[in-house]
Amino acid sequence: MARHSSPHGRAAARGAASTPGPLGMRDQLVTGLMLLAGIWLVLASWLLRYPFDDAAVDAQRNETGVGIVLLLVAFARIVRPRGWLSDLIVLLLGVWLLVAPAVIDYGGPANTPREAQANEVVTGIVLVVLALVSMLLLFRARRMNPQEAR
């Protein structure tokens, strides 16, 4: 049997994949930034030279845990593009980083390393923004073409 090419075949899919659209930006750019944020969270305590006291160790464990979960979500998005659930997980991770210094307390405000507080707040804001942008791009892609956006 001969295969006939159609505008809806592989060639059209390759052409559509090469044109940047909401899903392409979401799957490539936003996921790449999430991957970088996860790497940053895992390495930040060493790069920012947190002191070796109980409060800094608590902050390091928190950031490393959030970073590992974020890396797993980003890798899952690379392997297979995900829907809104991955965005919700990243949003919750970002909100957690924003409230963690107050919730965990890290040994009290006087004992909490300022580098850890600043890192968690800034990275939390970045994650919340990335999640919201990703959700917006997914919503936009679904409105533009409901068949292709899963």
Secondary structure class reads mainly alpha
Distance between the termini: 32 Å
How many strand units? 0
Question: Helix fraction?
Answer: over 70%
What's the structural domain tally? 1
Global outline: elongated
Order of helices and strands: HHHHH
Strand content: under 5%
Largest sheet: none
How many helices?
5
**Looking at the chains present, what oligomeric state does this protein adopt?**
single chain
Instruction: Report the C-alpha radius of gyration, rounded.
Output: 19 Å
Give the overall pLDDT as a whole number.
78
Give start-end ranges of low-pLDDT stretches: 1-20
Organism: Streptomyces pini
Transmembrane segments: 29-48, 88-109, 121-141
Domain SPW repeat-containing integral membrane: 31-132
Pfam family, one: SPW
Task: Please describe what this structure looks like.
There is one protein chain. With 150 residues, the protein is mainly α. It has one domain (22-144). Helix content is 75%, strand content 0%. It contains five helices and no strands. Helix 2 (22-47) packs antiparallel against helix 3 and helix 3 packs antiparallel against helix 4. It starts with 9 loop residues before the first helix and ends in a 6-residue tail after the last helix. The chain crosses the membrane at residues 29-48, 88-109, 121-141. Keywords: Membrane, Transmembrane, Transmembrane helix. It holds the Pfam family SPW.
